[in-house]
Structure formats: structure tokens, C-alpha cells
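Q: Start with the shorter request: fold the first protein.
A: Done. Sequence, then structure:
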Amino acid sequence: MGKPSVLSGIQPTADSFHIGNYFGALRQWVQMQDTHDCFYTVVDLHAITSEFDPKILKKRTLTSFAQLLAVGIDSLKSTLFVQSQVPQHAQLAWVLSCFTGFGEAGRMTQFKDKTQKGGQERSSVGLFTYPILQAADILLYQAQSVPVGEDQRQHLELTRDLAIRFNNQFGKTFVVPEAFIVKESAKILDLQDPTAKMSKSSPQGCVFILDEPDVVMKKFKTALTDSGKEIKYDPTNKPGISNLLSIIKAVTNEDMTTIESQFVNKGYGDLKIYTGELVVEKIIKPFREKTMTLLADENQLNSLMNDGAQKAEKVAAATLKSVYEKVGF
């Protein structure tokens, strides 16, 4: 028996990944390379569902690819590729869209959430149907596992429904994927609003992996803290302090009691500086340096992208051929 297969993707919608991406998902991606047959992709097709600049998208796609290599995705162990370079994604998405009910697609809560501000009239059909493209991403590679957060669980259910529906009508074609729940995934919160998840939409509260070290230190020094003086892990009453302690735990893997004991008789300022310096030394400096080195040799990066796309296409083409034969193409 070979290793179980897994697929996961990340959008190139920012100039840099942030530490929430790293501790919440990317670190697990690296670890899974030893236990799974991994397909990892920069999902640039998904990145055009809302307004975008082509030059910025191209640059961000290249940077995202370099960052995945920098954090430890090994292109020899895993299949690492850019989604748009494998045409079968769009081709299978069309077939699956013809098996998806309009009401079924309309029930996707992420579409509702994303259209609340601008309204449905200003939203693209791509934004409406992107869970179907996501289903194609997964089913093309016969992925048995998909690492998902709560916000993607509904989309995975749609993927499962479409796989079962197609299999029932045409015979066994797709593996029906299961959610891969990471047991201990660090939830990193915004430094300026420690009740919200860290997000690129909050530049001052978000620590980007490609930030300059002094920028990172400034963000930690100005992190929002709580009333009182005690440094104690208490997410309900001390969300700011608890978030900083969680970041230390994510970096060092020490238990919380040990971490708390280091700050007895110390102030909030000490905690902020210690956390910032730890993140800079262990995360920012090494990953930033590796990413910049990779970006300095664009020809090599493009070569790795082409290799990854060819590797991915071999698997994707076999799945699509089977689908096309079964639907009568």
C-alpha cells in the first residue's frame, strides 16, 4: 500500500504569507510529506474571483511558490505546482458545475459572507462557483485527505457530494475525500484585535513572513494587551496576553505552564519583546532569507514550477480522461 494522498492549496492574494498561515497550516503541510503523497498548489485561478492586477498576481504567485519551498515543501517529496499551469482544473470544474444544483451552490456560506459588502450584483459568477473549482482541485488527484479549517468544511462536503453523485451515475471514478483535521493546530490571532484571526486585511496586526525584522518588532511592541499585570494564559479575560503566549508555544512547543513561569514578576513589555525576538530569530529571518535567495534566481523557480506542473498533469490528465470517457466526450 502506498501513502494516502492529500491535496491542499493556498491563494496568492498577498505579498507575503503570515505567521498565522505558517502555524495554522503550512507547518502541517511540511510534516505531512513524511506520511502522505502530497499535492500542494498555489491556487491562482481562485485569486481572480475578485478584483486583481495581472502584474501583481504574477509576482505574488511566484513569491508564494518560493515561500512554500522556503518553509520546507520539498519538490522531490511532494508535487508542488501552480494551479493555472494544469489546464485539467478548469476542464473538470466545468463538468462538475453541470452536476451541481443552482440552489446547492447558492447555499455556500462563504459566497454569502463575501457578497455582503459589495452585494451580489457586483460579485462575479466565478466567486459563486469557486467551490466547484475547489472540488475539481481535490478530485483530480484522487485525494483521500484534505486539511480543512472550519471555514472550508462546507466546501469539502460539496466535493464529497459531487464525487458520490458522479460515482453513482457513472461507476467508481473519484475517491470520496475525508477531512484531515490537524489535532493541534495553533490559532494565531491579530496583534491589534486578539479576538479576531490574524489576517492580511489588518496590516498592523498581522506579522508577515517577509516583513523586515524591525517591522516585526514594532508590531509586537505595539501589540494590544489587557488590563492587570499578571502574565497568564486566559483567552477569555486576557486575549492579548494569551495570544502572545500562544505564539511562544507555537514556536517553542513548550507547555503553557513552563512558558508562564518564565514571566513571573515580569511586565507586559518584557513579554512583547521576548515574543517578537523569538519570532524574528526562529521564523522571520530564516524563511525570509531562503525566500529572497529563491526569488533571486527566477529561471530556477520557473523551472521548478514547470517540473511541478508536469508532475501534477500526469495525474490530473488520467482522471480527466476517465471523466470525459464516462460522460461521452
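Q: Next, the second protein, separately.
A: Sequence, then structure:
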Amino acid sequence: MTQARTIAVLGAGSWGTALANVTARTGADTVLWARNEAHIGELCAERQNRRRLPGIALEAGVRPSAKLTDVAQASIILAVVPAQALRAMCEQLKPVVAEGVPIVVCAKGIERQTGQFMSDVVADVLPRNPPAILSGPSFATDVAKGLPTAVTLAAHDETLARDLVGALGIPSFRLYHSVDLRGVEIGGAAKNVLAIACGIAQGRGLGASAGAALVARGFAELMRFGHEYGARPQTLMGLSGLGDLVLTCGSEQSRNFSLGLALGRGENIASASGGKLAEGAFTASILVEMAKMRGVDMPIAQSVDAVLGERITVREAIEALLMRPSKSEI
């Protein structure tokens, strides 16, 4: 698997396009799939993703396609679709994917309807295909440009995780392998919600000190949730947990942070996203629900969920957090 002949990337958004460039740089024939034929036509004609990643050329080894049958020859499939669309994508794959081909999920979220993590969704729909998770501090533009980036790739089987790292890694895109699939998933899903909170704080002008406090206390919430759902502490303190949290809680390149920033500045829910997908907005409610099921205290995540659900205002959320009784930090 260290020299995969064909790798398929499902989803031609900014992240999918960036990962397609990475896999092409490994020497693999890369199929970049999207269902929108007009979009694929543009990619083929212009050799760049003008809609989502303008100014960055597609590598020569990237082959855009709207035909799912072109995925059938792939020895590795990267599912770079939104978390809430993963199940439907896996259903589409059923007739074409060969048994044993790993499905590397590159979305960060929890399925709202079922409360399942992404690896569980893959196992549910495609039980003959081992799931893996790719997650960590990475912006699509940086990765597409070949700027140094380090992320984590997790699979239940360590040999598979190592093989996938060997197949997908290049010097500028450093991969660390892990068998803590759950920890990597939780870090990616929870940090998106917490990034919205940090964006709200900055948009409200609460200052750098408040932002740092939110990152630290948000990380404590992430750790508590991870402990209850079987994550290893070392994983949450690594790239896919703390590393990703730090990146997305302080940059407008993060869609989740940008959503919070707009909310903090007074925009309504409808306009704050700017037409871009912020995974944390879809994860917040199920994250909070799952936390309550296990008795996990997550006041920051709860406040984000309440603001997104328009049950409280941004000002009320801030006041509620500030009025919480003093307690031990540990």
C-alpha cells in the first residue's frame, strides 16, 4: 500500500482539492470526484478549483471526475464530504467499492440523527471496508500550497494506520499514525464547537485574555467528554485535539471561528455563515446531548448550542458564563 496506484478523493471542495494535490504528489493517480458535472468540467478546463481554492493549480496527477465508477479502481478512498453527508456518500459507494479498501474520513463531526461518530457510520454502511480518520491542525490553502503541516491518521489496526501514513504522507504533509480512532474523532468534532465560542468572544471585543481562557476551559470540556467516550488523554493533547483547537480558535481561516466572529459582531444566524459550511454548527446540539447523557459538564459548548438554536442571545450566553460559581480548576 505504500505505493498506491490509484487514490480517490470524494468531494471537490477546498479540503478535498488540497488533499487531491497531496495524494498526487505521492505519485499516485488521483481521482477527484464530485457529483456536480459543471464543477468537474471547470476543474478539467481550468486545472484549478476557482470556486473553492482559487489561484492554486491542480497537480498533473489529479483527474477530476463526476463518475463514481472511476472510484472503483482505488486502493484508498478519502471521504472529504461534510459529516452529515457521510452516510449518504457511503451508500453511494456500496455498488462500486471493493472489499477491504479503507475509507479515510476527512470530516470532523458527529452524525446528528444517530449520535454516531464518523468511523461508526462507515462501519454501519460499509462493514467490509475498514474506516480510518484523518484529522489535525490544517488549513486547505496551506496544504494545497505545500506549506508544512502535521496531522494524525487513525485506524483500529496499527498496521493499516502505518500503511496509510506511508501511502499518503509527503515531506510537507507529515502524518502521525494512531490506533485511538475515537480520540482523533472527538478532538476534531468538539474543537469545531469551541472555535465558534472563541469567534464570538473576539467578535464581541472581549479581549485576548478572554480568548485564552476560552481555549483553556474549552479544552477541559473536550478532555472530560473524551474521557467518558473512550479517548486516550495523549491523543487529545496531541495534533488532533489541542493542536487543532489552537489553530481553529484564533484564525478567520477557520469557518467555525468566522461563524462565531460574525455572531459576536451582531449578525444573525442566517447571514453569519456567509454561505460556507461550518461543521461545528451541526455538531453542537448532538455534542451537548451526548455530554448530558454521560453527565459531562460542558458549559461553553452548551452556550454555543443555545446561541445557535436562538434560545439565548450572545449577551445572555456571555453573562451566564461569567456568573458561573467559582470552583476548583481541576
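Q: Describe the second briefly.
A: The longest helix spans residues 181-203. The CA atoms of residues 40 and 64 lie 6 Å apart.
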